[in-house]
Design goal:
With about 110 residues, the protein is α+β, with helices and mostly antiparallel strands. The protein contains three helices and five strands, in the order ββαααβββ. Strands 2-1-5-4-3 form a five-stranded antiparallel beta sheet, with helices on one face.
């Protein structure tokens, strides 16, 4: 099996619903630890206000304030900061309503 970059999917409130094996390796949290938690789990405290403002705009409008790929910082289990490149897209239901967000994440050094 070939695994791609880590993918995290969240609902409209930013609660983690999908946490794949690559996310486990990158952030150090198992799926059992991450699923059901807020994205605050991996968003550094100093970036949360900006993150949530942009996140809520994205789930309301489907338009991101970020470029297609955004460089940012995440936080792993134990508090280690990680430099990340993130690409996001909305998840829609069959009626076209936005029901969540999928993020593809890559660590860069």
């Amino acid at each position: 099996m070939i695994l791609g970059p880590p993918t995290v999917c969240v609902d409209r409130q930013g609660i983690i619903e999908v946490w794949d094996a690559e996310s486990e390796k990158l952030f150090g949290y198992t799926a059992d630890e991450a699923i059901g938690q807020s994205l605050n789990l991996i968003v550094p405290t100093n970036l949360r206000a900006r993150h949530w403002a942009g996140f809520h705009q994205f789930v309301r409008t489907g338009r991101s304030y970020m470029p297609d790929i955004t460089n940012t910082t995440g936080v792993a289990k134990g508090g280690r900061l990680i430099r990340l490149a993130i690409s996001v897209e909305v998840i829609r239901d069959d009626a076209g309503e936005i029901i969540g967000v999928a993020a593809t994440i890559k660590e860069f050094r």
